[in-house]
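Hi support team,

I'm filing this because I wasn't sure whether my run with iron/sulfur cluster finished correctly. The job status page said complete, but I'd like someone to confirm that the output block is well-formed before I use it downstream. Pasting the exact inputs I used:
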Amino acid sequence: MNDEPHLSVSQLRTYMQCPLQYFFRYVCGVERPPTPELILGRTIHETLHDNYRQKIESHRDLPLSQITDIFSDHWDREVKEAEFQDDENSGHFKDQGIQLPTAYHQGVSPVVQPIEVEKEFLFDTGVTELPLKGYIDLIDDQHYIIDHKTSKRSFPKDAADRNIQLTAYALAHRKLYGDKERGVRMDIMVKTKQPKIQQLQSTRSQADIDRFLRLAKNVEDDIKAGIFYPNENYMCSPCGYREMCDEW
Ligand code: SF4
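And here is everything the job wrote out:
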């Protein structure tokens, strides 16, 4: 994939959440070990995508036993990178985590027919200096854009209406296909005792896209101007840059 300088939604969100965290991660290039939660989300993504990738051609889901094997293989490979707290246990995460793709595979996968999985995009926005780069989780045969999430709790009902990642995906769809998507949807695997799947659907107007582009341009301008400062918030607790932040 092309590694030319670019903007991504992750970069924009990191900057909006905490400009100093952006500075450590993207300007200084300091990477922190992923949390077990992050590894779990990544593992589930890879598991679902392995199924959906083959389904583009086969139009059939893999058997559940194969899904759990795929999850297990991805987890065992990815978990080596993770940093666990003293009270966290890899086996516990894995046992709990496997229930999420299982619930999704049984409840949602059978009614999804993908045409694209992890579809790469990289294009000039016409507004920002840098191109926008990313991957759309899934586009189905009705041209709904579907983003897979994992969470400890349900999302607010309007979460899909306000999500800038989905707006960026809608813009990317229009660039890729020259046509508007049918809609956008978040499929959230909620890690409750009894795992549940929450689906939140929305649409994007041209006004939403224009607002996103204004946002991207403003963030890009601030980054170029070297505006970096700590934004103490509830996300400080899992932030891997705490020590660097205290020394700033
Ligand atoms: S600890 Fe909080 S304020 Fe400091 S860099 Fe991390 S998120 Fe930002």
